[in-house]
Each structure stands twice: as C-alpha cells, then as structure tokens.
Amino acid sequence: MTKLPTKGQLLVAEPSVLGDVSFTRSVILLADHNEEGSVGFILNKPLDVTLADLIEGMEDCEMPIYNGGPVEQENLYFLHTAPELIEGSQEISSGIYWGGDFQRAVDLILAKEISCDNIKFFLGYSGWGSKQLDQEISEHSWVITKNNLCKELLKSNHLALWSDKLRELGGSYALWSNAPANPQYN
C-alpha cells in the first residue's frame, strides 16, 4: 500500500526521475496537501540570485534564493521559524511556517533580527492539482519521508539533502546516493 502524503512531510524524488529540470534529485517540503491539491517548496536547489538582487534596499543582503518549483516563478515565497515576529504565518509542522507579512520579514532581516538560519526564500513553488501528487506517488516518482530535521531544515543550503535522504532510506536507495547527477559521467 502506498503511503499518503501529509503537510510537513518531505517528498524525495525517486532516482528514476531523470531529465525533469525542476524535480530531478529534489527534496520538497510539503507545505499543504488536501483534496484540492498540494503545494511544496524544493529545499535543495539554490539559484544564482540573492535577496539583494530582487529587493530594493537590500544591497548588503547576500541571502540566497532557492528554486521553489516550476509554478509562479515570478513570485517570491518564504518559509521561516519566527511566527512570533512575522504576523500572518501559517504553520506547516515542526516549528516551520509559511509566509506572513513580507515587509515585516524584510525589516527583520535588515535589522539582523532574522538570519539565514531562520528564513529561506523561494522563487516559485511546486504545485499539484487534486489527486495529482497521489498519482505521482503511486507511479513511484516520489518517496514520502518524515521531516526529521524539523527547524534545522532551514539552516543550510542542503545541496547534499537528496543524497542524505537516499542513504537514510537504505537498501537500493543507498546505492543511488553517490550516483552522479548525469549518469553519462559514470
């Protein structure tokens, strides 16, 4: 029986997901999942863009921006661990929150009251229509895992997150954890 996704879990791309620029070797935090669809953010794909490149007045802020997914890539989204400072946030789980007062978040960064350890920005998000994610899971495109890193999930760029999660899954997944991104390089 296939495990059903719930918000707060991680979606780990199966090693067989090749050639999909957005999702190959991705780990996604599922921010919401209900009958209408699903929303998540890719955690391990930093872009060559910083907050300073996108927001006026943040010239000294080298906070990286991540590719959240292929949907609405012209919009900036954020996850954080400071709901007491950012009104309007929605808890995902394990002390991780989504969104809230964007200007307040910017002001807190400028005042150095929030750092890269507390907040992560994304261009776009990953989205699925009703039952679409369930279908992809049944087709073995994703493995569902618990977010055992909790708040620590936002503290680094996690370039090795996909490989780390495969090692945790063990078995044949562990073998794939050291495979090159492009199998032709092998």
UniProtKB/TrEMBL annotation:
One Pfam short name: DUF179
Name assigned to this protein: YqgE/AlgH family protein
Organism name: Dokdonia genika
